[in-house]
Amino acid sequence: MAGCYPRAVPGGWDAPGSLLRPGAGRSWRPSGPTGQDGSVTAPATPLPSLAELLAEACVVTLPLRSRFRGVDEREAMLLRGPRGWSEFAPFLEYDDAEASAWLAAAIDDAWGPDAAPRRDRVPVNATLPAVPPERVAELLDPFGAVRTVKVKVAERGQGLADDVARVAAVRERLGPEGRIRVDANGAWGLDEAERAAHALAPFDLEYLEQPCATVAELAELRARLRDWQLPIAADESVRKAADPLAVARAGAADLLVIKAAPLGGVRAALAIAEQAGLPVVVSSALDSSVGLGMGARLAAALPELPYDCGLGTAALLAADVAAEPLLPVDGHVAALRVEPDPELLDRHAAAAERAAWWRERLSRCHERLAAGTGPFTGGDAPG
Question: How far apart are CA 183 and CA 125, in angstroms?
Answer without folding.
Answer: 13
